[in-house]
User: Fold these one by one.
Assistant:
Number 1:
Amino acid sequence: MHMADALLSPAVGATMWGVAAGTIAYSSMKVKKDLDERKIPLMGVLGAFIFAAQMINFTIPATGSSGHLGGGLLLAILLGPYAAFLTIASVLVVQSLFFADGGILALGCNIFNLGFFPAFIAYPFIYRKIVGREPSKARLTAAAIIAAVVGLQLGAFSVVLETVASGISSLPFSTFVALMQPIHLAIGIVEGVVTAAVVSFVAVARPEIIRGATESVSLGSLPLRNVFLSFLVATLLTGGVVSWFASENPDGLEWAIAKVTGSEEVTGTEDGVHSMLAGLQEKLAFLPDYSFKENAAPAEEGVAYAGEAKADETARLGTSVAGGVGALLTLVLAFFIGFILKRRQQAA
Amino acid sequence: MRSIDGAVLDLKRLDLLATGDSSIHRLDARAKVLTTFVFIVSVVSFNRYEFTALFPFFIYPVVIASLANLPGGYIIRKISMVIPFAFVVGMLNPLFDRALFFHLGPFAVTGGWISCASIIIRTVLTVGAAVILVAVTGFLSVCQALERLGTPRTFTVQLLFLYRYIFVLTEEGARASRARELRSCGRKGLGLASFGSLIGHLLIRTWLRAERIHMAMLARGFTGEFHSRQVSGFGWRELFYVAGWSALFVALRLENGAQWLGGLVTGLLS
């Protein structure tokens, strides 16, 4: 469920960064205000524990496949929502930097999808409500499964929304939803069963850990409203600013440049290197727009095109050939420069 | 499945690279974090059918990796581990996007194939940038940079704690997991029952460890934050580094460098 940078548009990525940053700031404030500084090393070590636990697999009965713990809900049960959210976020930061699990720009999305829903929705509104004060084992298992399923369903749906809004993948919304939700239903059930197994083991072996955790939760009367409020403000602010930049016709960056320079593209000075190179290029290239001449286009057989569409395709092919050659060249050039630099580095 | 020990070793290796000493290593971490961010945003801001214009961006990871003397094979291996995932995601595009773009000999190239290729190149570039950032900066410095860029201290302390104990706990987890595997002949006993108590034990030990750590820290006067000697500042070198790379990224974003070069060369050859 970790999203990668490659499928994300800057507008969506930046908006979710804003949302995640806002929630992190708010949660940090809450944890600090709690003044339970015993929680500080506990959060860190439990984050590392989640890391270790995720690497240990178990076999899922009757399927032959193996699964592992996700850990979001478990952290919320042990630490309460704010500390759990910070812990999940920190785990995701390390995963994105060291294991390329989810990208850097996608961090905002991932923190929101995997952190916000279990910590601030599934745990307080589902798990806590079902479990009550003195939970029986069946109750605890049911609560964990339902909470895990809901948390993961919301997260998966959020992944779909973010991906579709970014528009890099051409997967239609309905197909993507039909793919993601059932898969995450299964994952959610497994996650719930595992969480319940771990929690009930600890509740037997060291009851004070679980009891202490359920009592110290301070998600009382209105803090959640504050979370939503700050979250809403952050979304509107960043979303508003970013989409204002990004929604303009060409695209955000070009538009921003147009505003700065007063023209759609950065034009070089009329005389000087730019025009000299442009002149050189026009002389060298047999079609200045990097396209093949139309009559040089390969004749398609069996496919009838309207003249305009054909010309269009030819132009695209021309651009593509030049682009392909250029791409290869730049790659070779880049690695050549790297090679030279490395040689110099080693000589020094 | 990769073994746990292998994963930990991999992590350690990436972390050790950051102890190198080069002009890039010596830069202030903030400059490197900001540049990486500008790079990633520039790369992902292209529309989905952009393919060739992405290639000039390879100049950044290649130059940094060379200047910082990073082992190329290791970096490439690290990036290539992610490519299959990108391919799976990208593979869906040709299925849904069948608008014809152009013919390449007998092959009809559809928009879906172009966007699929674009996704893979994007993945290589963005993942490469992240790996290289850690390899030339190190996690501790990245955290310090984040803090000096405005991240709440509670969160950066959390990151530092997490990072410190990942090594300890993954090794402990690996030992526990290996012990279980050795006792479960073949597949028997790897199910949920043993997993629950295994993880539960690990959790309890973790919890007790956290309490000991807290005691030890209190005894040493911990008040909720780490102190570190400030060793680097954001000077002219950093400014030039960020501004120079950013200018290049914006230029490459606006002008298709590959197209330009290709046009020049195909023009020459004809």
Number 2:
Amino acid sequence: MNVLSNEPLSRRTVLRGLGATIALPWLEAMTPRGFAAGGAPKPPVRMAFVYVPNGIQMKQWTPATEGADYELPDLLKPLAKLRGDFSVLSGLAALQGGHDGGNHAPAMGTFLTGVQPRRDARCGVSADQVAAARLGHLTRLPSLEMGCKRVGGSSCDGFPCVVSSTMSWTSPTQPLPSEPSPRAVFDRLFGTGKPTDARQADTRRSILDTVGDEAAALGRKVSTDDRHKIDEYLTSVRDVEGRIQRAESLPVPKLPEGAVRPDEKIPSDFAPYVRLLGDLMVLAFQTDVTRVCSFIFDSEQSVRSYPELGVKAAHHNLSHHGGKEDMVKQILQIERHHLTQFAHVLNRLKTVREGSGTLLDNCMIAYGSGLGDGDRHDHKDLPILLAGKGGGSLKPGRHVRYPANTPLTNLWLSMLDRVGAPAARLGDSTGPLKSLD
Amino acid sequence: MRSLRYSLLLTFAGLVLSGGFSVRPAPVAAQLETPRAEPAPNPGAAFVKKYCLSCHDGTKKKGDLDLSVYPDEASLVAGRKVWSNAAKAVRDGEMPPKGAPQPTADERDAFAEAVRGVFRRADAGKPRDPGRTTVRRLNRAEYNNTIRDLCMIEFEPADNFPADDASHGFDNNADALSLSPLLLERYLDAAEAVVGRTLATGKKEPAVRVGFTQFITKNTQVPYRLLVFTSEPVAATFRPAADGDYVVRLEGKPLRKDDPPAEVLVSIDGKELKRVSFAWPEKGAYTKFEIPVTLTKGKHRVSLALLNPADELEAKKAAYPPRVEGGNKENFRGLELHAIDLAGPTDDPPEGRRRILACDPKAEPREQASEILTRFAGRAFRRPATAEEVERYLKLYDRSRAAGQTFEAAIATCLQAILVSPNFLFRVELDDRPREKGPHPVSECHLASRLSYFLWSSMPDEELLALASKGELSKTLDAQVKRMLADPRSDAFVENFAPQWLEIANIARVSRGPQFEVRLRESMTRESLLFFDHVLRENRPITDFLDGRYTFVNDRLARLYGLGQHARGKKSDAVIPEHAFIKVALPADGPRAGVLTHASVLTMTSAPDRTSPVKRGIWVLENVLGSPPPPPPADVPPLDQPADPKARVETLRARLELHRGKAACAACHAKIDPLGFALEKFDVLGQFRETDGKKPIDDAGELPDGTKFRGPDGLRKILLERKDRFARCLTEKLLTYALGRGLGDYDAPTVDAIAAAVAKDDYLFRTLILEVVKSDPFRLRRGTKGDKP
């Protein structure tokens, strides 16, 4: 059973055999909670953020016209069959396009925070974590952070590498590492398959009590910088306590038939790897184990090469193509490949029936990069897609162009509104984005 | 207005100082006595006026730098960062830029020295700021090693933890080591597994198991049991394969339910072991005994004798098998022996278990718990645990007992808690002299941890802690460093520091096509580690890293390098074994020497499909010369290709030259590219080549100051001429690693002092390590004054 790496995709994904016939676990088990206000319950809205590194060839990405009837640009062709399910949002920018030096690493750190990361690894709170803080108590996991293993050297533009490989931050000093192992993601979502041991939960609770007290006592004795670290520890203690408590009080998620615990070995090719993670996200949403996900297709400044596509050069190197045709051709191959995988994830969401529609209808899935034109290292006019109907609050299927340098964080504010975690500000935001519905 | 006024002052100062930059005897003391004395003028003013102000004045402010607003020494000290960078740029020949009038080398040095002189005078008499490291979480390697030494088990639970983030080049940086809920969950899992393994009793399945068929007895056997009626012993022989602790296991019962218990003497090799009494079993089919015994390897005889046969006469009559039916069975009395085994050897309870659970056997359980937890917490926290802390764990013990846990289970719960407690996971250095305003030594316990995590990536051992508790550690640093480097635990220093300094830690993650298989990657890494290890163990000068004409290869690398039996052209006598690594001398006329030509470094500084002179140049600047270029600016304009395809440049060198033609790029790339081009004759895997495809390779370069050189030898020569910069660079790296924090301006005097001491001692590597250990930032902590509230 040494799986996953060399096998055709269709048989290998965790959702093997899963089709529209599978009943919805949240309907069976979770209706009484929160969203049942008499009559048919309204399914919850889920949000996800998918990141791709090194920018995009904007010429092949941006539709020429606005509105619903735009002609599908070359790069978006893999999404042709889904064009009614997503919108292209142009003109959004990170920090008004300005960044202080080192342009790859901070691109990811800024993406969901709207804050310029610092060289001492301080960043800001990310949009997904704003949602997790507000909605986390409703699900077993407040949020899910995952992403393909980082491929790159040790240098990250002079920034701590955490900035170039982490999208989610619960506080300016607390990055949430993304989990690269599909098996570990699965175990986090559904447990290891062992029956939950109430004794173990009790023991852990008392252990956490004890060490929480110790940390609080310690926090009173140390200086400010140290206290941040101890606070970070205490926050984690509370978070884990919450998880234990929710794991006990919330119904056990029912795995759809055919869902299989992934193999420990990580697929070596990109497509099966990222699809496996994508399927786990679908599974997490479907079973309502979490409603918030950040998903790093690949880390910023990634030097992954794609021999399976015949692309031997590194992604990052190709992004600095200087207009050289053969390099542009190759990077377009990579970008198209990424979008093909994204289409796969959207299709999965669409095959799951939920209420009177599909799971995708109740999702908001943003896809994009913190760099626009990677060759120039710029952070203006970012490539952004927004897929799903957000429970009916979004009107996908269009190309919307916003005034130049509209903060990307405005989009996140709008999404936070729709998921039920409104925020007044996020990083450099100036107010929710209009024209989404 | 401001800048105009200062410009006037500067001109004046320039006139006064036009004599040059000889370090003036500081008039500072005199000034202090006369309150209205003139401030000491800026000693670099004349140089700045002559070479810098045409760009860096109040009007042009090139690079947002205005050097005209620093009239006196005090202003230089206030603008310390600006001026130390300026001095560095001038000394390193980066400024003034090409095309501008160039100072002589002497002028450069004098300027740099004058600026440093100002700082030195400002710092004189003042205690140096030793800086401050935030509480530092154990990274993965440190966690594994600490668990190994704390619990005395071989187990590496941290391999499942999320990767640690690196900052300033190392993954032990306090600020970058964060603790997410995900990680805390892993800590909980790991603690459970660690305590489980540590407290396991280590009982093994019986090594020797003997049924009664091997009994040597006059009594005839019946298939399932042996009946013993007489006092004449029955015996069995065993041949345990090893010395150790064994258990003799017996199962039996009296013949009849109403019989009195069968009293049996168990002997081993004729010596009484134990008397046992087989009563009718209350539960199960037989009464069981386990008798521990220590045996040597070899033959042993276990015998059983019934002590209370009915009577001798009857017993003698009974020297025949009782018949199942009829007969006078009721007249007999005796033992029905079902089984006799020798089980073992039982392991010693593992050392960790024995030492962790050791306690006064006569004490009350709660006192025993207190003894166990006080000792374990003290070791885990690397300092004596406070009464308050122990009390907290005892409360957990009480709670666990109240919830029905056994003594050992309750202790296990507490041990788990200690292993996820902040005092274990973080290296917390609470100040033992909190009222002291100025820098002062860290407590000896903390010094022990600083040492052990620097050189062992693990907790201090008993010797370090014992010295620390006597307050003698700081007096014996030389001897301790020597001892610690001789200890195998110091391999951790090689394994953790070297790959991060050389930036080869991620070699497993790069892709280079099918020929770059696992064995080649591992061989590459191994070469560099062995080389580093050699310089360390043999106390070689650090210049060996630059020009050591030797290396360590196995067959795979020898093939890559063309060494030994794989030598191209002239034959070599050396035969390199297939799997083992051996030290080989490198040909004096060959291209290789030092770490710069290690395949690991050359591979890591290449793109998957081509070499990268830019990466290699940056590598040299960052890791040898200690002056990494700033990251590229935002909005880099694309390299314009001429419209005419014939005019397009094809070679990498030509493209990069085009790059350097852009003013925005030139400043850095003029510095970076030539260093990298010198290594252009090594391909993406570090193999030597003369051509790139069909094009011959030009590996000549020119530094910004006009120095011309060619190829790896030329590069090495240039680097050796700058070996003091290398000494400073390596000092910075080591200090960063040792302190777990990025260095600040205030560390510059320390770095200078260490590098100077190393230079004075023939650049020996161990001197460098020792000087780091004895430096202020390593031994001292800031006082309250330095801690921002």
